[in-house]
Amino acid sequence: MTTNTAVPALPTRPQARPSLRLALTPDGPRPRLDGAWWPHSRNLAAQLPDLIAELDRTWGRITRAAVHDTAWTQLRHSVPTGSHDIRVNWYDSAHDPHAITLFSYRIGEWELLVVPPETAPWRAKQLMTAAAHPGNQRTARALLTHGPAEPSPDTAPRDRIHIRTRHAHDPDPEPAAAAAAGR
Question: Does pTM surpass 0.70?
């Protein structure tokens, strides 16, 4: 005689979402780029919601994004972000493939360098720091092609630039950034 004993299911942990990797230019004169974003994949529909959630808090409600169509997969004209849908326009030649342009009714237009997901961490940090530097005048394409330029001495020091990483369950990125910076 065999007895079937039910094996209790092991509790499953919710799959942790990867952290948001974002560096924004500090307040001051308007640079060429407003910062950098290093997504974890080229799936725009999966990556955009966390970026928009963060930028809605920083810049005001983001309403639209523009990207280069060959740089992304899962392109849709509308991406749900939790609180609202974002209209996404994609272009084949008019837009830098290494940038995302975001639009907000309150602030206007912002452009971020998009660091390719497969970039080595040391290189991604270098590119994000350069893109978020207030003295940067290089385009996203130029940064990825030629690398960062040396900052001029009259611009803000690099130690004012913080690369924010935030997990989906962590509402405030600043303590993690402050701890990483040794403050």
Answer: yes
